[in-house]
Amino acid sequence: KRKTENSIQILGAREHNLKNIDIEIPRDELVVITGLSGSGKSTLAFDILFAEGQRRFLDSMSTYARQFVEQMEKPEIDAISGLPPTVAIEQRISRGGGKSTVATVTEVYHFLRLLWAKTGTQHCPKCNVAVEKQSLTHIAATVRAALKRGPVQLLAPVIKARKGFHTDVAVWAEKQGFAMLFVDGQFKPSANFKKLERFKEHSIDVVVAVIEPGVGVKALQELIEKALHIGKGTARILDASKHFQVLSSEMSCPTCGEAFEELDPRLFSYNSPHGWCSECRGYGFHTRAVAALDTQHADSVQAAELEEEMRMSRVEETEKVPCAACDGARLNETARHVLVHGLGIEHLADLSVGHARAVIEDFDFSGSQKLIARDILPEISQRLRFMEEVGLGYLQLDRAATTLSGGESQRIRLAAQLGSNLTGVLYVLDEPTIGLHPRDNEKLLDTLAALRDHGNSVIIVEHDEETMRRANHVIDLGPGAGKFGGEVTYAGKTEALFRPSTVKGQGSTGGESPTALALGDPIRHPMRGERRKLPGKTAKTGWLVLKGASANNLKNIDVRIPVGRLTGITGISGSGKSSLMRGVLKPAVEAALAKKKDKAVASNLNSLVGVEQFAAVYEVDQSPIGKTSRSTPATYVKVFDEIRKLFAVVPEARIRGYTSSRFSFNNEGGRCETCGGNGLIKLEMNFLPTGYVECENCAGLRYNAATLEIEYNDRNIGQVMAMTIEEATDFFSSHPKIFRTLKLLRDTGLGYLQLGQPSPTLSGGEAQRIKLVTQLTKGVARAQHARLRQNRTPLSNLYLIEEPTIGLHMADVRKLLEVLHALVDDGHTVVVIEHNLDLIAEADYLLDIGPEAGAEGGQLVATGTPEDVAKSKASRTAPFLRRALRK
């Protein structure tokens, strides 16, 4: 057993909703912080532990250095001691550029470029034969051929894409008698040379000579030898037609004579002009405009005008088309013809992490190449192995970083930390199990345990039961969320948490632990006593049937989805779940409903039957709902518009001529101009972190005094926006349109959020549930409209939801299930991609994809009720599902 003599002591923590708590956290242990969504977990882990650790590190720097980094604000605490250096590995979707890939983010690609540059064999793109050394006579013949068109300038490269002033190069050239330089595409004299931009890459050639057509053989060869000596085996000529041609004594095609420059790692970089495809500039694709439906605008019109407005309201969107020049490889022709063991670097990047590791470990070099590869290959293999250990072996190396989920991005950063071999560090992680199948959880937890065993402290914000079982210490916050949370309801050894009777009253205030209560009363499936009956297998209606689904790794599968039921898509990460939902199901149903034929859809699917049973299809993805303080839950779900209309019809408002726009904090006239409607004033200070203070003029209410004089039921608009959703639901109980939406938010466990809470302060789970509610309210409104227009029972809406349990506590999962069941009871069809066993076990029907990831996945392994799938011997989900059904 490890000693836990050292610990982190926190006294008087009052950050956000924390209630002046004191807590001791053991070091060199695996610690889980859990609790209801909004109870204060992230505040304790990231806003206190990580922020204070980073702030202390930055305080050790000079004031000069600190002005170049964003400093973190000092948390509201009395004292903290025993805090080691901290590293945060957050669940953050990558904001890298369009060229960032899995390989570049993990630095695997950097070592691959080095390997290809040092051990690769250049092949001629025209002749597809390996290049060879070229004799001086052959090079001279090339120059003589160019001289037939007029004088040529002989250049020797001395600087290749290097940053700096480079005045020393000009001084050297002048001393050697070279009067002219070719600098970044322009000729410049070496005398009185002005220094170049220091932090910009520059390329410089020495103009060795201007060769006239009548030059003698010996003189020509001497000039070429001189240029090749200066350029270390490479020179260039610029002929009369201003065309460059490379001369090389080392790299020339034996068939056509074309010469190539010495291999350099930059040749394989699609971020550099040296390597990128000139047509797509390293992106691998081009964009083209396509017409798309402006659903956001369509939703804002009156119901009676909805259909007509939807046919006029079209906007231009873009779609990506693979670059024809490089076929999506991103690199230029020269780079694509450098081979290592017969493979181009783009071919290796096209493989999955697991497959690439097998290929790399099979590489066998000899001679000097073996010595070169000795240090490079282990670096590549180690990084690939770490990615496999955290459950990312299915990812392709060239997959764009922007397409990764938050969980995948976090595990990539975790894999990078594993390679650092640091000790004595405090790692803070945010729900690392997100997006992982229960089978892969075990690998991840082994990895985190290894990180701890290396002498590090690991603190995880997590809801996963298996993660809690593997922890040494658990801290449970609650007992509620928002202002009802922020207390320590349990802190101690993991074993006691799974015996609820021993936990009661052990918290800092004696409150009950919400986690212990949930563990003591697990969901029994099906929670409503019985499952909905499925339509008959031979029924002509009641099923949506997809035949020949083949997007990405899907193996031409046939899929049946019951209409008016809750369907779960399961399988290990990378098995093809998202390919089925996003790559086939959604675009196919959208195209069919719009009555348009799409080649891309047709290529992924042979046929679609039963779509006439649906009115619309909606996807609830995981993107943020807003990035500024002006975006709030109330504005996003559109109840703010209705609330403003209510204030506008108050008699006093009508007398003053106020319209609903007066009550928007985004408009001049009604908002507080001191803070611009933000409620806070931003303070920027040298050497100190940026701070925010409450606006003194409006006291943080965002509106000016005249606007705040208008009251509805004794509350002004500022006070209403400061209400929690729980309070606002009761306040607007007599207004069905507002009440329905707020009740839905409350029922999904978001009652503690304020109506006017800035969107950037929301967690990922909170943002997704708000988005889910928005989609549900849209769907209900359109279904009601369809009933009115068609004078019959509304068609079913098809809802596609990916991992809605992200960020949810066990108690909140129960609430989410009730919402999804209510939606299905209303006649709609819900399809959910999920790893959470409670949701999987609650579905009416399951589609289990697999059996493995990537090329080894993409098959329909098992279908049917959860009980049916649990019996499958081929399903990787079945063993865990059996355990969930036995609760």
Structure commentary:
It is a single chain. 44% of the residues are buried. The strands form 9 sheets. Strands 5-17-18-3-19-20 form a 6-stranded mixed sheet, sandwiched between helices. Strands 9-8-10-7-11-12 form a 6-stranded antiparallel sheet. Strands 25-30-31-23-32-33 form a 6-stranded mixed sheet, sandwiched between helices. The chain is globular, with a radius of gyration of 32 Å. The longest helix is centred in the last third of the chain and has 27 residues, at 764-790. It is α/β, with parallel strands linked by helices and 887 residues long. The chain is 35% helix and 20% strand. Helix 15 links the parallel strand 17 and strand 18 (457-461). It is built from 33 helices and 33 strands. Residues 292-311 have low confidence and may be disordered.
The number of helical segments is 33
Which class best fits the helix and strand makeup? alpha/beta
Strand order of the largest sheet: 5-17-18-3-19-20
* Mean model confidence by pLDDT: 87
Tell me the Rg in angstroms.
32 Å
Overall strand count = 33
End-to-end span in angstroms?
A: 32 Å
> What gross morphology would you assign?
globular
What is the quaternary state of this protein? single chain
Q: Helical proportion?
A: 25-40%
Main beta sheet strand tally, sense and closure: 6 strands, mixed
Low-confidence sequence ranges: 292-311
